Amino acid sequence: MTAYDKIFENNQRWAEEQRRADPDYFTKLSLSQQPDFLYIGCSDSRVPANQIMGLAPGDVFVHRNVANLVNNVDLNVMSVINYAVQQLDVKHIIVCGHYGCGGVRAAMQPKDLGILNPWLRNIRDVYRFHKQELAGIADETKRYERLVELNVLEQSINIIKTAAVQKSYLARGFPIVHSWVFDLRNGIIQDLKLDFVQTLHNIQEVYDLTKE
Question: Which positions are annotated as binding Zn(2+) (predicted)?
Fold first, then answer.
């Protein structure tokens, strides 16, 4: 049996296990989704959203791309955020990066990466914004890990800049935006403790889309 064929065998086993535990599992799953969380993470195959959060299917609305970027001209991520906020009423939006991110490391290299160049330029911009802090970190690994963290924080700020998030929070008190980093070396999620309310207040001096 090939690795591809094995997937279908795994799927059959998984489905049977769910039905044994709860005969109505798939009936309930098919009715609707009401997730409290929108998770925006990296496409890296080693960081599965539901598993690291310990949540079941239906609990997390997920968007993933290379290096967990939130680019305001990316209609994919912007559509996900708007749908999650306006239709699903998610209470929390999480940007989760991870140490060992190949996209962040690639953005630190002086190399032409072809079609990846415009995508990774977003991370290079983060490096430019925080050049002084990063230049003060002598250890290359620690500098790289700090850029992973700073990238997550900047992408979280990009979410707070959106009209959907600003208007929903002012009207309903949610969603709250969070910044996380997952450590592949121990499986632990680190909360970077983004102060959502203060950040919203600060950026509205320039990015206010509500007049409130």
Answer: 42, 44, 98, 101
**Residue 63 bears catalytic tag:** no
pLDDT tens digit string along 33-75?
999 999 999 999 999 999 999 999 999 999 999 999 999 999 9
Using CA atoms, how far apart are residues 67 and 102, in angstroms rounded to an integer?
Answer: 8
Please tell me which residue in 42, 63, 96, 178 is annotated as part of the active site: 42
d(CA 108, CA 120): 9
Q: Does the annotation list 96 as a binding residue?
A: no
The question of whether 92 is a catalytic residue gets the answer no
Q: What is the pLDDT of residues 173-212, one digit of tens each?
A: 999 999 999 999 999 999 999 999 999 999 888 988 887 7
In CATH, the number for domain 34-202 is: 3.40.1050.10
pLDDT in tens, 149-170: 999 999 999 999 999 999 999 9
- Cα–Cα distance, 62 to 14 (Å, whole number): 21
Q: Which of 13, 19, 22, 46 is catalytic?
A: 46
pTM: 0.94
Q: Out of 63, 64, 96, 101, which one is annotated catalytic?
A: 101
Three-state DSSP state, 62: strand
Domain boundaries, the chain: 1-31, 34-202
195 in active site: no
42 labeled binding residue: yes
| Residue 101 annotated among the catalytic residues of the structure | yes
**Catalytic-residue membership of 44:** yes
Task: Fill in the amino acid letter for 104.
Answer: V
